[in-house]
Specification:
312 residues, alpha/beta, Alpha-Beta Plaits, Rossmann fold, 3 domains, 5-stranded parallel β-sheet, 4-stranded antiparallel β-sheet, 25% strand
Amino acid sequence: MNLVPITYKGGIYQHDVIVDLIDDLGGYIIQKHILAQEVVLQALVPREDIALIARIGKPLTGEITPSPLVGTEIAVVTMSLEIHHLPHASCDVAEYIRRFGAKTNMVGLARGFGKRIAQLNDEERDVINEHDIAVYLLGDFETCIEQKFPVLRRGIRVPIVVLGGPSTETLRRIIDPPVEGFVGGVGRFMHRTKESEELEKLEEVAAEITRVLDKKRDEIAKDPPSVSPARLMDVISDQLEDIHAVLSPTPITVQMTGLRVKLPYDTYAAILKGIIIEGGVTIGEVADILPSRMRDYILVRVKPFSETNIMV
């Protein structure tokens, strides 16, 4: 079954009809927001059933839009937390790609600034590698980017998209070896993005991130996870009652090949391993349960089918 990411927006009245419909069709609700009298559902649904969901949602003022980044967690890496790197460009990019369904985390480097002193420490590297993709927001100067980026990419295993002030062609030329994505013309600026050309540039950023993630999805499809991370989220939500006491908007964050569970590792790792998915198969059999470098969270890394010979 081919599941595609969408966002459903509609009235709160009888929205449970849509929730039940998505569940009956074999889809998954990744995140649910209730804003006053409107409900927003980010979901993975069967491609062939989108028209059915739209038809049933129409009397409920429902509207469906494609959201290609639903089910992904993205690290937005800024060179520092100082005013000339934050808050404008970094926050605008992070907020804009959330509109396409992504869960974003800001990673402000302790020593990302300066050609001579730029560096990436072990904790920053590990946190970035816990995401599906890293979006680096660099500065305006070609020589600065060329000299310090090799240090800032060292040890990063996830795909990288680089944003910077020079043109896209210049970024491709000065970054060697190349990364997976480039968008030029996005350097440091001291205002929020309001003008049409600035919003078009954010559209370009979202399109490039989507392209890189689609390529990663194609690679994952060659050896798929032993269980869908979205299904695993539902299993944990149903069987681990304590997850519902977590105050985070996303107590379980879905990634492309795993989950971030926002519970203490020492207390809940063994419990997670023993949860039964189906037919006696436990989470510990099809996934690695690891401590996260982000707070005291738990990382669930689903093993590929080739490693387990299990598909649930």
